[in-house]
Amino acid sequence: MQVIQQTLERPVWMDGRALALLLAASLTTMANATISPALPGLERLFAGDPNAAMLTRLLVPAPSLSVALFAPFAGLAVDRFGRRLLLLWGVILFAVAGCAGLVLPDLPSIFVSRLVLGVAVALIMTAQTALVGDYFNDDKRSAMTGLQISARNFGGLVFISLAGWVAAISPRWPFAIYGLAIVFLPLMWMVIVDPRRSQAPGAKATSDAAGHPSFVLLLSLLVLLQALTNMIFFVMPTQMSFFLEAKGYDAAMMTGAILGTVMLSGGSFALLYPRLQRATGYAGIFLIGYAAMALGFLLLVLAATTPVLFAAAAAIGAGYALVSPSFVALTLNLAPLRHRGVSGGVLTASIFIGQFVSPLFVTPLIAWHGYGTLFGGTALLLAAMAMAAGLAGAAAKVRRR
């Protein structure tokens, strides 16, 4: 496949293909967290179901299970059958499965529709990641990975804020928001093409095609770290509405506002990612990002007032948005071109494995020890991760000398 060169004078976001890929990226946040403000209402709506409490909490991470299981196979399909076809079908399936909750009669059937939604997300994310690697190189690629996270966050801000409003009317209305994916389909249809499979000659292209000699080991480490990062971050959309309800807030409206703050902060800081990455390197980015997340969870422990809650959400959103692009950028830099789809699929699976296990691990911990212990322990873990990143960066500098 030919890597398509970009001109230095043209900002990457002005490329129609980049815009289409950024719209696709915005869908991935919508997939899980859009219905978060509706969770207490859905639990009350289906109160007759003896498993309503657990099923309701699993609706948010349910797509993550499908993505975790299906994404590696989606990556293989993307490498074999092309990126464009699977991206377009993924968007169509996304809209249909996402809107199904409007009419399905019970929680088990809604849960199944959320699993199907995860299949759509796997197709979209693996195709999108591979296309970023195909279309862009070097600084353009780094800029795109940051813009992807920004698009996810700003898209999440719009979708989750809207969901907070409509959930106050009916807990079913947030499912209608998934239909917006169809609006993005015409642009994707027009501008997304599969790069040619022939690789242009040249030392840079050959190096990019070959990948890193130890890419399997390094990718495995990235996968584990990203799964842990997402398990921690997903405390916010899965537990925040219940935490706020326990503190006496209007859970539907306040959850939308808090998660909107996470997205707004994350989207803003993700725009700074290329500049910060060049200045500090990947180790520096992980240090800053994990330290910000640690501060955010510490503030949740101390959250006696509403402004502190919003400050905590902003810190967590900023930190997560800074570390997330590095996983994609490092994977695209390490993986051979011929394995870019499956590498993106495995990386995508790690995100959603972390998201799915988050409530399974966290909900019993809250029941046994309360929110304070959860948030305090999470802050300590993130602080240790930040220190490890700093030590790794310092060791790398010593080796280079």
UniProtKB/TrEMBL annotation:
Coiled-coil regions listed in the entry: none
Annotated GO CC locations: plasma membrane
SUPFAM superfamilies (alphabetical): MFS general substrate transporter
Segments passing through the bilayer: 57-78, 85-104, 116-137, 149-169, 175-193, 214-236, 251-273, 285-304, 310-334, 346-368, 374-396
Membrane topology note: Multi-pass membrane protein
Domain of life of the source: Bacteria
Main location: membrane
GO MF term (any one): transmembrane transporter activity
The entry's keywords: Cell membrane, Membrane, Transmembrane, Transmembrane helix
Major facilitator superfamily (MFS) profile domain: residues covered: 17-401
Tagged with keyword Transport: no
Subcellular location: Cell membrane
Protein name: MFS family permease
